[in-house]
Amino acid sequence: MISSIILAAGMSSRMGQPKSLLEWEGDLLVAYQVRQLKEAGVDEVIVVLGHRADEVHRRIGNLPCRVMVNARYFAGRAGSLRIGAKAVNRDADRIIIVNVDQPRTAGFYRYLIDSHDPAKAAARPVFEGKHGHPVVVAGRLREELLAATDEEEGLHGVMRRHAGEILDVAAGAECLLDINTPEEYRSAREAHQAGA
């Protein structure tokens, strides 16, 4: 079973509006992410909301996903990771962890999931020596995700503990796309539309 966690709880302070609700390919960014994951063959999509959760939840109520809410979203990202991990099916053999502001295509998700070796703790995309996102972790790491803390840098801390068990997967520049500001959003949309 393949599970996924979309982290979408942040305040989007640099963007000035919830990134989940940005327009992407004629849809909400969070909706795009859910649909791409499902199209990639992911069995379970969990969306963790926080800032303006009620508003976002209302807009995505018809999507094939489970919504969890991190009421303490302001306290750090690790809390959202823990809430997402708690909702993950215990039978999941792979968990793909996605940031809502890093849109990827179904083909990209599928490639990364298929590249993950079950014997490895995780798989992450790499472009020109830079580690990108998202990350696929083995289901056996669920307990560690449940114990992630901001002091240990959340997912980064878990990955560090398994540094020798991570498979680097060659990928394109898409794996580095990250949207934090209005300028980055405009550039990302232009680049995405040009590549479509």
Describe this structure in words.
With 196 residues, the chain is of the alpha/beta class. The protein has one domain (2-195): Spore Coat Polysaccharide Biosynthesis Protein SpsA, Chain A (Alpha-Beta Complex). It is built from seven helices and ten strands. It has helices at 29-39, 53-59, 77-87, 106-115, 142-146, 154-161, 182-195, and strands spanning 2-8, 23-24, 27-28, 44-49, 66-69, 94-99, 122-127, 130-131, 135-138, 166-170. Strand 4 (44-49), helix 2 and strand 5 (66-69) form a beta-alpha-beta unit. Helix 1 (29-39) crosses helix 4 (106-115). The chain starts with a strand and ends with a helix. The model has no long low-confidence stretch (mean pLDDT 91).
Distance between the amino and carboxyl termini: 30 Å
In total, the number of strands is: 10
Shape: globular
CATH architecture: Alpha-Beta Complex
Outline the biggest β-sheet: 8 strands, mixed
Please give the share of residues in helix. Answer: 25-40%
Unreliable spans are none
Element order: H for helix, E for strand = EEEHEHEHEHEEEHHEH
- What is the name of the CATH topology? Spore Coat Polysaccharide Biosynthesis Protein SpsA, Chain A
Number of helices: 7
Question: What's the gyration radius in Å?
Answer: 15 Å
Question: What is the count of distinct domains?
Answer: 1
The CATH class turns out to be Alpha Beta
Mean pLDDT comes to 91
The portion of residues forming beta strands comes to 15-25%
Going by CATH, the homologous superfamily would be Spore Coat Polysaccharide Biosynthesis Protein SpsA, Chain A
Determine the structural class based on helices, strands and strand pairing: alpha/beta
